[in-house]
Amino acid sequence: MSSTSTRISAESVRNFNTRFRLLDTDHNIRLLYTLFIVTLLAGFLFTIYWAHSVTGLSYSGIAQHYLGSDQTFGEPKSFRELAETTHFHFFTMPVVFLILCHVFYLTMAPQVLKMLMTLLAFFGVGLDLASPWLILYVSPHFAAAMLVGDLLMVGTFLVMAGVPLYEMWILKKRLMAGGRD
To answer: b/e string for 39-70 if b means 16 or more Cβ within 10 A?
Structure first.
């Protein structure tokens, strides 16, 4: 093998292993990611508002929402209602967090933080999806699991949205730089 082909393959491997980072993007990509994150934030804020108006974001309010209550004249949620809501959320919530995790993985955050946020986010999604069923068919005490799941989703969202926004717009580093740090 000649030294030229060795050099070319070494350069190809080096280029193949070069990681794309948010700091390497232009303003158009940064704007796209920012608009996505801001839109998600609006969705999270609306969800929190809706949940507060329905349950008061309280343990007892969540249990009453699913089990029904004489105070609110509410009927227990039916199997069909839970199935319809779960079906929709089973497809949307993982996709939202997949994309958010992808953007977060483009940051300079430590790998351990990336893995931790991913696991906590998807654990929160799992709790949020399972809790209504557990509240209705096992015990109202699973309202606490829903609160934990929601806190995990909101908390991980704030980290996974905040770090990219910070890196893209506040951190004074390279923008479309040729060299790597």
So the answer is: ebeeebeeeeeebeeebeeeeebbbbbbeeee
**How many whole angstroms separate alpha carbon 134 and alpha carbon 127?**
10
The number of angstroms, rounded, from the C-alpha of 22 to the middle of its chain's C-alpha atoms is 18
Q: Tell me how far apart the alpha carbons of residues 165 and 171 are, in angstroms, rounded to a whole number.
A: 9
Alpha carbon distance 39, 47 (integer Å): 12
pTM higher than 0.90: no
Is residue 74 classed as helix, strand or coil in its secondary structure?
A: strand
**Token duo for residue 17:** 């292993």
CA-nearest of 165, 126, 140 to 40 is: 165
Nearest to 100 by CA among 122, 82, 76, 68: 122
Could you give phi then psi for residue 173, rounded to 5 degrees?
-135, -165
Determine the Cα–Cα distance for residues 131 and 136; give it in Å rounded to an integer: 8
User: pLDDT tens digits, residue range 133-165?
Assistant: 999 999 999 999 999 999 999 999 999 999 999
